[in-house]
Amino acid sequence: MSSSLTGFPASPWSAEFRQLILSQPFRIAHGASSERLVLRLRLGEAIGEAPFVPYYPDTPEAVKIWLEQREPARFWTPEEEVEAPSVVRLAADLLRQDLEAKKQGLAVWEFLGQPNPGGMRACRSVGIPSDLEDFSEQVRCFSRQFRVLKLKLGSGNSAFDEAIVAAAREAAPKAVLFGDANGGWSVPEAAALLPKMEKLGLAFVEQPVHHAGGIETWRELHAARASHSLPLYADESAQTISDICALAGLVQGVNIKLLKSGGFGGALARLASARTLGLGALLGCMIETSLGVTAAAHLAGAFDWIDLDGHLYLANDDYEGLAYDSEGRLQMPGRQGIGAIQRGEGRF
Predict the structure, then answer these.
(1) How many domains does the chain have?
(2) Domain boundary among 105, 135, 158
(3) 203 and 81 share a domain?
(4) Does residue 325 share a domain with residue 242?
(5) How far apart (Å, rounded) are the C-alpha atoms in residues 293 and 308?
(6) Using the 8-state DSSP alphabet, how is residue 6 labeled?
C-alpha cells in the first residue's frame, strides 16, 4: 500500500504486521501470552512500531481495513489520524519523530528537548509464577543485574500473591520491589493485602483494582484502607489526562505508556499533568520489540521509574537498540532518530 502520512510530502509508505514469539509464556492477571503482534509503518529510512495488546480494543482486522481505505498518494488528514486505531496513531507518531529527528541529525530525546535518558535505573518484570521455587531462582537471577524488580500479582489467590512477594523478598533481599496486580484484586482483597505488601517491603503497588469500576472503585479502596502509607500507582485506570486528574488524591503515581498516549506528545502531556498534581511517574511499555521499547526509552530521563523490558521476553526480536549495563542502567544506542537498527538483512 502507498500513501503519505500527515505532514509529509506524498511518498510511498509501507505497513506490515509482525508476529512476536515469547521465549516462555508470560502471565499477568489479564491472562497468559505466548505470542503478540505489532504493526510497523515505514517511510524511507524512518520506521515506527506499535503493539497490539490482547486486552485493548484494537484488532489487526480493523487496522488492516483502516489502512486499506487510505487512498494512494494523498495525505492522511489530521482528522483521519485522530479517528485512526490507537496502534496506527502510535506507529505514525514514532515514524514522524524518527524522520524529523534524523533530518536534524539528533536522537529523538534531543529533538524533543528531553533529559538524557542514559543511566536511568530500570526494572525487570517477573510474571505470575506457577512454581515458587522456579520463581525464586528467576528473581535471584534477575536481581544480579537489575536492582529494581516488578512482580506481577493478581493470581486469583490472595494467599499466593502474598507468597509471591515473600519469596521474591527472600530471594532478593536488597532489591527494590514493587507489585503490579493489573486490576486483579477486589476492593476488600486489596484493602487486606496492601498492609501485608507494605510489611514485605514493596515500594508501591500498581493498579490493585480493576479499571472497569472507574474512579468510584478507587474511592472505595481509599476509604477501605486502614493505612494510606503504601503508595499506589494507576495504569489501566490512567488512560487520559482527565483520568489522571480524577485520580489525584487517590493514587501517588501513574504509569504512562506510548500506546495509551498516542505517541510522544501525548505521553509528555500526561507527564506534565501528573507533575502538576504532585504525582510520581512510571514510564512503561508493552511486549514489543527493541524498536518500540527503544522509542519509549527516549522519554526515560523525565520519569521516576522506568519499566522498559518488553523486548526481553521475545525469542524473535529482530531489532537492537537500548541495552542495560551490569547494574540494570539504561544504555541508549547513540544513533540518530529512534536509534534501533534491524538485525540481519530482512526489512522486517
Answers:
(1) 2
(2) 105
(3) no
(4) yes
(5) 6
(6) T
Q: What is the CATH number of the domain that holds 24?
A: 3.30.390.10
CB 273 within 8 A of CB 245: yes
Domain boundary among 72, 105, 138: 105
Place of cell 525487570: 124
Q: Are 26 and 135 in contact (CB under 8 A)?
A: no
User: Is residue 143 located within the same domain as residue 272?
Assistant: yes
- Among 186, 139, 233, 244, which residue's Cα sits nearest to residue 29? 186
If asked whether residues 153 and 268 sit together in one domain, one would say: yes
Measured over the CA atoms of residue 164, residue 167, residue 169 and residue 174, the dihedral's sign is negative
- End-to-end CA distance of the chain, in Å? 15
201, 200, 217, 197: which is closest to 209 by C-alpha? 217
Please give the model's pTM, rounded to 2 decimal places: 0.92
Report which of 121, 164, 145 is spatially closest to residue 27, judged by C-alpha positions: 164
Q: Residue holding cell 478507587?
A: 218
| Torsion angle defined by CA atoms of residues 240, 245, 250 and 253, in that order, rounded to the nearest 10 degrees | 60
Domain presence at residue 279: yes
| Contact (Cβ atoms closer than 8 angstroms) between residue 342 and residue 112 | no
The residue segments making up the domain with residue 226 are: 123-342
Low-confidence ranges of the chain (pLDDT < 50): 1-10, 345-348
Question: Which residues in 110-141 are b (16+ Cβ under 10 Å) and which e?
Answer: ebbebeebbebbbbbbbbbbeebeebbebbee
Residue 1 lies in a domain: no
Residues linked to residue 39 through DSSP beta bridges, in sequence order: 17, 50
For residue range 16-36, list pLDDT tens digits in order.
999 999 998 888 877 778 999
Residue 161 vs residues 44, 107, 217, 246: alpha-carbon distances, Å: 48, 41, 21, 28
Helix ranges (DSSP H) in 157-240: 158-171, 187-199, 214-224
- Same-domain status, 97 and 191: no
Query: Can you give the pLDDT at residue 344?
Result: 73
Separation of alpha carbons 148 and 146, rounded Å: 5
